[in-house]
Amino acid sequence: MKKAGILLPLQSLNGENGIGDFGKAAFDFIDIIKKSGFDMWQILPLNPLGYGNSPYQPYSSFAGDEIYISLDLLYEDGLLEKRAEKIEQKERIEYNFVRKFKEKYLKIAYENFKKTKENQTKAYEDFLKFDFVYNYGVFITLKKENDLRSWNEWPDEMKNWIVDKKFDLTPYEDKINYEIFVQYIFYKQWMKLKAYANENNIKIVGDIPFYVGLDSLDVWENQQYFEITKDGNPKLIAGVPPDNFSATGQRWGNPIYNWEKIKEDDFSFWINRLAYNGKLYDIVRLDHFRAFDTYWVIDSKNETAVEGEWLFAPGYELFEKIKKDLKDVEFIAEDLGEIRPEVFELRDYFNLKGMVIIQTDIRATEKNYIYAPENSICYTGTHDNKTIMDWFEDLSEEEKENINKLFQKIGIRNENIYDNFFEFAMRCDSEYVIIPLQDILGLGKEARINTPATLDEKNWSYKFKSMEKLKEKEEFLKEIIEKNRK
Length: 486
Known about the structure:
Blueprint: E1 3-7, H1 24-35, E2 40-42, H2 71-76, H3 95-115, H4 122-128, H5 132-145, H6 156-159, H7 161-164, H8 173-199, E3 203-208, H9 217-220, E4 236-240, E5 250-255, H10 259-264, H11 268-280, E6 283-286, E7 294-299, E8 309-312, H12 315-325, E9 330-333, H13 341-349, E10 354-357, H14 358-361, E11 376-379, H15 388-393, H16 397-409, H17 417-427, E12 432-436, H18 437-440, H19 467-471, H20 474-483
Parallel strand pairs: 1-2, 1-12, 2-3, 3-6, 6-9, 10-11, 11-12
Antiparallel strand pairs: 4-5, 4-7, 7-8
Helix pairs in contact: 5-8
């Protein structure tokens, strides 16, 4: 049976404190999408945001960003004596402002937490057993002590603690415990929200980046698994060659994996990452799936991604291990871009759903209007694309006419063109259909989430301000979804 989902980053909800978080707006959103007939909510990674507030350059594959913690829930749990003050709602997310605002209350909540018995509960003790928790507390504490500089720029005694444990952490014990508290609250609130979604038959689709950032706990505590020098500087870095997004390619800067070392340890680095994300989400989207087959390698001295080479990854060996150890986790493959056939062969061998994007795959003049195999997910676009309305408006008049003729021909005659695209997606053969909220509401370029290969301050800052517009479409959406279930 076909399943329908909606794509919206958690942070894009109109939360009370300047950003979408684990509070009331998220619970309300789940209620609305359930009434609208949806089965899934796809979000972006929730890990600590890195450079440019990108969720794809996190400080950890395991930790969560405290910016998503709901202050209202802290109050309801008795960790704040009074509700946080309301702040002026801005047009877009102002990350630095929100982070400082919430930190003030998180520190008050921590002091209250220390006075309660909650830090002696089984739930808290169980959380402390996760391998990443203490080391992340140390990592982020030392990072703050060094003005947020990357770990490879810290004084040697701090930088080497992860290896020799010689640096005395006693003076930092309370700061480390604060960071652990923050992670505990993040985990507790997120799992409560996820449980509510699941109770309402909504599955959460999460997203895990292929690479990790150089300035991350992942690299700091697993230096042997990366192509870096003894000083922690990258020798080889990740990216993609020139494509439709960029004439010079994309130079991401993430360190390249040392696959031989990872294989020697039976892929434990990858299995642990994926297993933990399998706890956080019902379905895990594997970003940049093509790199499990071949990946673009750039010398760190190069300023662009033009010069590089393709290297082979041990994709089959890794996914055999994943299939054996993580059989209960559903993975989907982000297999977009210019990709060699072997990537699809790897995907299909392990029966993973790939992605079909209407903006790039619609064929308005052929009998086969879109190639969308059943074992796939059809999107109008992703967080990296224009909204469907922005894309449509940029087409030539002939292209627009061809698409409108196609919709007429196959009997799609809604009042709005964006509703036609929604129904078209629901009619395709894909088992899953996931539509960005912006495309459901017909929003324009102002609502785009991210423009790849740019450092635009608008990236990742979109806010969805009115639930009422979505509520007004509940009946229409449910009718289209239910009509196309089979």
